[in-house]
Inverse folding.
């Protein structure tokens, strides 16, 4: 029996119900509303300031979330690798828990925390830090806080896995040869963890780019990112061609980052550790 | 062991980050017992009213039933097809192997909104929008990469000489697989099946487009309960789902340990 043939049913299913639809979407984006081939949709995006602003804001939010997650996630991964016993279990549970919790549950939780009558505002009001509730949802702050938390495990896990794989003797060697702890960290520890850092940062960046749920529920009307713009053009404006062009841009950016990452880092290190 | 100042600071920081990761989810528990229907923290009074509303209302019950049945069908389909694809990858020869892997991982890489929009166009033409089969097919596609990645990892750790031994002792390929290989990879398959179930059960963006008005799932129902005004029933549902996540996490931890034990 040819075992390779066992791979055909799954590929057929993905091809018919996702790859073919994606191909149609990309093709549709190169049509004018009237049906003929044209670059009209892309011209419209490139010449309309509001659409460029949405693209810019999407990139900006995704980039900022990635940077904050790197700053929080790296020390957390280091702490996780040093932790032992119940403390390690606790940290591990904290970082794995979000993977197994429904996204809408977590989003609802953030609404309760950030709402004008929510947890954070009642604490701040109780302490007298502010005199009236501060606006934390329906704006960019809410989107940034929510996305930072939801993406954090994607940053932590690849870095933690890379630290586990590190040869500790290299650190001892550096120390015994007279390097200061600071120098050992900067010249030995940090470079050895970089593959994990790149993997985590790329996954976080790619997922943030296409995020729909958090901006839609925690953001305000001014916080439209590309995913919402696609949804809006399809369900409200019914402009399929324009939505298709926007979708193609999002797909191209995502696939581009993924292929570049695969080139530099190898396929396996990136996605198999994501969960 | 005494901690240096630097290590204590690091541990303290990690503790704070853990709270940041966990607390916003746990906060749904007290909210679900709120006697008030306004969103306010801390909640006022104690009531089981939102649980009664959840279990009593037909729309919530139907959405839950749809989610469970769709996810179960997805689990069976995705685990079967994903496992056979994993066998092909690890044990067989596939032409253009890297392209195959890339195409099979596309459902995991493509942004959910792009998958949803493009699937919607084709599914609408095939009359699959708003149907059970439509939802099952869409979610099976999304779940396949997670099954594939998990089962490939398990197969790569397996000792193939045991299957070869069975074959050389006269077992047919099918018998060697079902009686030797399958029992060895079973814990890994159960983990993959749980992944498939959760992928479907939690999925919202594709479901928003494909579920139409007659195959509404729990996440879609929750979405409409959060979109414009906050429906307090969401708090009760969230608490129940949170309990389910804890169970899934414990089950996975247990199975991973069992799996590691049997392959070493």
């Amino acid at each position: 029996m040819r075992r390779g043939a066992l791979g055909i049913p799954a590929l057929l299913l993905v091809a018919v119900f996702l790859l073919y639809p994606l191909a149609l979407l990309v093709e549709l984006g190169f049509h004018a509303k009237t049906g003929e081939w044209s670059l009209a949709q892309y011209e419209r995006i490139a010449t309309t300031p509001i659409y460029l602003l949405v693209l810019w804001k999407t990139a900006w939010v995704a980039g900022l979330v990635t940077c904050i997650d790197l700053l929080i996630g790296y020390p957390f991964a280091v702490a996780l690798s040093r932790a032992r016993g119940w403390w390690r279990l606790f940290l591990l549970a904290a970082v794995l828990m979000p993977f197994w919790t429904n996204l809408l549950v977590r989003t609802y939780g953030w609404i309760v925390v950030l709402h004008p009558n929510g947890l954070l505002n009642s604490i701040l009001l109780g302490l007298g830090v502010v005199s009236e509730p501060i606006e934390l949802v329906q704006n960019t702050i809410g989107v940034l806080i929510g996305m930072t938390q939801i993406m954090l495990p994607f940053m932590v896990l690849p870095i933690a896995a890379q630290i586990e794989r590190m040869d500790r003797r290299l650190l001892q060697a550096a120390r015994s040869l007279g390097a200061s702890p600071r120098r050992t960290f900067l010249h030995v520890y940090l470079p050895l963890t970089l593959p994990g850092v790149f993997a985590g940062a790329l996954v976080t960046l790619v997922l943030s780019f296409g995020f729909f749920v958090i901006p839609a529920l925690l953001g305000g009307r001014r916080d439209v990112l590309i995913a919402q713009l696609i949804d809006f053009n399809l369900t409200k404006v019914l402009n399929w061609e324009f939505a298709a062009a926007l979708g193609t841009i999002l797909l191209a950016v995502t696939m581009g980052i993924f292929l570049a990452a695969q080139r530099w880092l190898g396929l396996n290190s990136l996605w198999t550790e994501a969960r | 062991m005494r901690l240096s100042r630097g290590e204590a600071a690091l541990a303290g920081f990690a503790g704070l980050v853990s709270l940041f990761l966990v607390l916003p989810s746990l906060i749904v528990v007290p909210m679900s017992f709120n006697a008030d229907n306004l969103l306010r923290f801390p909640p006022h009074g104690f009531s089981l009213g939102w649980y009664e509303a959840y279990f009593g209302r037909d729309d919530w019950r139907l959405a839950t039933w749809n989610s469970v049945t769709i996810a179960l069908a997805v689990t069976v389909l995705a685990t079967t097809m994903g496992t056979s694809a994993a066998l092909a990858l690890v044990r067989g020869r596939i032409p253009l192997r890297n392209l195959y892997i890339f195409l099979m991982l596309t459902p995991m890489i493509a942004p959910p909104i792009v998958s949803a929009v493009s699937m919607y166009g084709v599914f609408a033409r095939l009359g699959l929008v708003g149907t059970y089969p439509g939802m099952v097919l869409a979610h099976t596609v999304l779940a396949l990469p997670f099954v594939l990645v998990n089962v490939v990892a398990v197969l790569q750790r397996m000792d193939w000489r045991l299957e070869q031994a069975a074959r050389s002792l006269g077992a047919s390929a099918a018998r060697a697989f079902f009686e030797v290989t399958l029992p060895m990879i079973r814990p890994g398959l159960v983990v993959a099946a749980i992944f498939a179930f959760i992928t479907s059960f939690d999925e919202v963006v594709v479901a928003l487009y494909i579920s139409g008005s007659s195959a509404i799932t729990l996440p879609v129902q929750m979405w409409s309960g959060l979109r414009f005004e906050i429906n307090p029933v969401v708090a009760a549902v969230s608490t129940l789902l949170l309990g389910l996540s804890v169970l899934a996490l414990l089950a996975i931890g247990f199975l991973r340990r069992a799996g590691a034990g049997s392959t070493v």
User: Anything to note?
Assistant: Chain A is about 75% helix and 0% strand. The first helix of chain A runs from residue 8 to 28. The mean pLDDT of chain A is 88.
